[in-house]
Amino acid sequence: MLTSSQKVFDVLEFLCANGPHKALEVSKALSLQKSSVHRFLNSLIEFGYVRKDDQTGLFSVTLKVVQLGAMVSSKIDMVETGRSYMRELVATFDQATVSFATFMDKQVLVLRREYPRNCVTRIDLSQQLPAYCTGLGKALLSTKSEEEIDEYIATVPRTAYTLHTLTDGERLKQDLLAAKEKGYAEDISEISDSLHCVAVPILTPHGGLWAISLSGHCSVIREYGVENIVKHLKKAVWDMTSGYSAAPVA
After folding, report:
1. Which of 22, 37, 136, 237 would give a disulfide with 248, using CB separation of 3.0 to 4.6 Å?
2. Given the DSSP bridges, would you call strands 59-61 and 195-203 parallel, antiparallel or unpaired?
3. Would the pTM count as exceeding 0.70?
């Protein structure tokens, strides 16, 4: 038996696939009671996904549904588009790992990693990481307003993973503001001893937020040079987002 929430989505999917319809037509097409369909439609109207034309009695989906679909599609497309550029980066920096991530529930969600074949230091971290002590997380947080950064620092507990983890709120805030100004972020032995990560944020006009990073042993990153890494990361971001109206944060 279908739950009410499933039936709501059935109604929404019907309107997406078939265009504007009256409640009675939706009721007949989905074999649902008209009173139930009206209740589901009113819920969808309340949340902004459906509108009703009072003159014709037709219900149709709103632009919010289109925007939602575009946001989901862009996330999938962005990861797929970024794959070839990530591989180019690991070919250039052949002792490091390239990661691609987004922000979810105040944490870093790693969507993809690329490892070079001859990588000496293979990063073995979970797919969900704290934001405050990772280069990816700091890059993502650096795109936030100062008020949002303050709110994050005030509400997220901070554990010291190493002796170098920034757990002091004021020091972390200054680090994030510096990353905002530079256009890239770093963590040096904060999430794991001897691991250095350099990351660049990516913003899109419709609110998409990602970050790309290059990580490796501290000695390896020092040999490559942070400025050189940032230059390559920003070029990769620029190239991969040229068709998405997105750009690296300056």
Report:
1. 237
2. unpaired
3. no
Quick one: pLDDT at residue 127?
A: 78
CA dist., res. 174 & res. 154, Å (int) = 14
| Residue 111 token pair | 């969507």
Reduce the DSSP state of residue 59 to 3 states and report it.
Answer: strand
CA dihedral 85, 88, 93, 99 (to 10 degrees): 30
Helices marked H in the chain? 4-18, 23-30, 34-46, 63-92, 135-141, 146-155, 169-182, 218-224, 226-240
Cα separation, 130 vs 212, in Å, equals 16
Predicted pLDDT at 65: 81
Give the other-Cβ count within 10 Å of 93's Cβ: 23
Indicate the burial class of 239 (C-beta count within 10 angstroms; 0-12, 13-18, 19 or more): middle
Q: In this structure, are residues 226 and 193 in contact, taking their beta carbons and an 8 Å threshold? A: no
Predicted local distance difference test score (pLDDT) of residue 244: 52
Which amino acid, 186? E
Closest CA relative to residue 139, chosen from 203, 217, 204, 207: 203
CA gap 50, 48 in Å, rounded: 6
> What is the reported pLDDT for 5?
74
Q: What domains can be seen in the chain, in order of their start residue?
A: 4-67 (1.10.10.10), 76-245 (3.30.450.40)
pLDDT, position 192: 94
C-alpha span between 117 and 119 (Å, rounded):
6
| pLDDT at 4 (0 to 100) | 72
Predicted pLDDT at 246: 46
User: pLDDT below 70 — which residues of the chain?
Assistant: 1-3, 67-77, 119-126, 204-207, 242-250
